[in-house]
Amino acid sequence: MATAAEWLEGARPRTLPTAIAPVLAGTAIAIADSGACWGLAALCLVVALGLVIGVNFANDYSDGIRGSDGDNRVGPLRLVGSGIAEPAQVKAAAFACFGVSAVAGLIITIVTGHWWFIAVGVVCILAAWFYTGGSHPYGYAGLGEIFVFMFFGLVAVGGTVYVQTDHVGAAGWVAACLIGATACGVLTANNLRDIDGDRVSGKHTLATKLGHQGTRIFYLVLVTLACVGVVAVAALTTWWTLFGLFAIALLVSPVRAMVTKATGMALVSALKNTGLAELVCSIGLFVGALVG
């Protein structure tokens, strides 16, 4: 039986910035536009956290039963792959998290009256499950970064803005793109770390297609676009949102890891710091919008 600490590790708390950051960034745009609705913002956060934790458990389950998390894996504990939790338990945990997101999303729908949000929520849950689930997971076809950009960038940030203001606007879409790019950076660092094990297990991520050098270049392009995006948001809203560039301090170490061709466990800190950089960037946007 897995312990509570092992379940917590299996939830992969280091990935939670990818849930928190889009809501903070979207709320920052709402503040700069016409003012935030804090209750709806809190519900958006519940939706995002449920989806991220749910997809982590779903990946644990799907990769575990496929044997993708075998001896060649580098990285944090996997519940199914390590054999400390039954696959059915992990699958149930994933759908419990999706259920929490669905309830919070339904409340948002009722409050705002935008019933088409239900369709968006269904698509988000399906995307979370079929990332590594089903007979043809898109995460095994090198499409993970595309879907992360869409759902953790465009949908998460744009949705948070729309829920609170009934529109998105140019600043909202730019913020969505920069957060999406940083979230892709998190996944890219993760897949670069696992690239050799994924090749052995037959998991075809974008990293396995680009190779070590191509993946490093792709990561550098992503974080550069994110920084440029912060400047663009500041130009469209208030220059105080340049606080988001404080994230650069956390990106120095991951960028160095990419340039010096670090591999394996040496990339764990790059993954962690990229996630923290995304969070700090969103906090900077949020605080800047409040000050502005």
Automatic annotation (TrEMBL):
Its main location: membrane. It catalyses: an all-trans-polyprenyl diphosphate + 1,4-dihydroxy-2-naphthoate + H(+) = a 2-demethylmenaquinol + CO2 + diphosphate. Keywords: Cell membrane, Membrane, Menaquinone biosynthesis, Transferase, Transmembrane, Transmembrane helix. It is an enzyme of class 2 (transferase). Pathway: Quinol/quinone metabolism; menaquinone biosynthesis; menaquinol from 1,4-dihydroxy-2-naphthoate: step 1/2. The keyword Transmembrane applies. Conversion of 1,4-dihydroxy-2-naphthoate (DHNA) to demethylmenaquinone (DMK). This is 1,4-dihydroxy-2-naphthoate octaprenyltransferase. It comes from Cutibacterium modestum.
